[in-house]
Specification:
By secondary structure, this protein is an alpha+beta fold. The protein has one domain. It contains 6 helices and 12 strands. The chain has helices spanning 17-20, 24-30, 39-42, 133-153, 160-163, 249-256; strands spanning 11-13, 31-38, 49-55, 75-76, 79-84, 90-92, 166-167, 184-185, 193-194, 203-208, 220-226, 231-237. Strands 4, 5, 6, 7, 10, 11 and 12 form a 7-stranded antiparallel β-sheet that branches. A 3-stranded antiparallel β-sheet has the order 1-2-3. A two-stranded antiparallel ribbon has the order 8-9. The longest helix has 21 residues, at 133-153. The radius of gyration is 18 Å and the shape is globular. It starts with 10 loop residues before the first strand and ends in a 10-residue tail after the last helix.
Length: 266
């Protein structure tokens, strides 16, 4: 295993939504593709690229905390899963209304509400909740600026070892490694890993700090991959961050206790 590099193309910053998602017109409303990694660098038997993606709405509360009516095995507090196609595009394994940005969107309420091609540019204009609008706009502006700067210069603004914090083996666990939030194996060891419903293990791919890319969000994004089903799984935490408005370990612990939205003072 080697470290992915922008020089040989095994690491690509700011991949386009069309190259990252099976349903790009919906996904780009809620997810920011920050970088993509050639999976063969992690394991030579793996194929394709894995986009590492961040929910734009992440700032003050864990992902999915306010949308529990949309939870599934692969869409729950602090976790989201995707099927990675042979074309290296992510197909979300949940209801798009899992994301608070789209939770009350009537156009997503039923199977007949959208065009047959969910990537169609004729999709309705989704409007996020008012309180999320400044955050989403700020995140998207930063994403566009970073992508444009990289495309114009062709030079990575950060060294290769700064695009990612870790590759192939997580440097530490943390609040994300909570069995109350997701099915985990290896508890009590230095090899904690998520598990598929049938017990197959996920393998760690990479970790990055979203704040190296965008102004808001957690300090850790961790990506896992299960090669047989080509399932990608992402989780987030803020480690030992001290800032009050961060997505932090305290938030993850509260979510694990099953607190309701009324228990949050945001």
């Amino acid at each position: 295993m080697s470290w992915p590099s922008t020089a040989d193309g095994t690491l690509r910053p700011y991949p386009a939504a069309d190259d990252s998602f099976a349903e790009p017109r919906i996904a780009e409303r809620v997810l920011a593709p920050l970088v993509s990694v050639d999976l063969s660098v992690i394991d030579p038997s793996w194929t394709g690229r894995l986009p590492l993606v961040l929910p734009l709405e992440l700032r003050e509360a864990p992902l999915g905390l306010r949308t529990r009516d949309m939870h599934t095995f692969f869409a729950r507090t602090g976790w989201m899963g995707f099927r990675l196609g042979s074309d290296s595009r992510l197909d979300f394994l949940g209801d798009w209304r899992f994301f608070e940005t789209l939770h009350d969107e009537p156009a997503l309420a039923g199977p007949d509400s959208l065009p047959d091609d969910a990537s169609s540019p004729s999709l309705p204009r989704f409007v996020p909740p008012r309180r999320l609008v400044p955050l989403i706009e700020d995140q998207l502006a930063a994403l566009r600026t970073g992508r444009l700067a990289f495309e114009r210069s062709g030079v990575a603004p950060m060294p290769d070892d700064e695009w990612l914090q870790d590759v192939g083996y997580p440097r530490e666990s943390g609040p994300w490694a909570d069995p109350a939030l997701f099915s985990l194996g290896g508890l009590g060891t230095d090899d904690v890993h998520p598990l598929m419903p049938n017990g197959d293990r996920f393998h760690f791919v990479a970790e990055l700090n979203p704040r190296d890319y965008l102004p808001h969000g957690p300090r850790r994004l961790l990506a896992f991959f299960e090669p047989s089903s080509r399932t990608a799984l992402f989780t987030f935490d803020d480690g030992d961050a001290e800032e009050e408005d961060d997505f932090g370990s305290e938030n993850a612990e509260l979510a694990a206790l099953g607190l309701s939205d009324d228990d949050w003072d945001l």
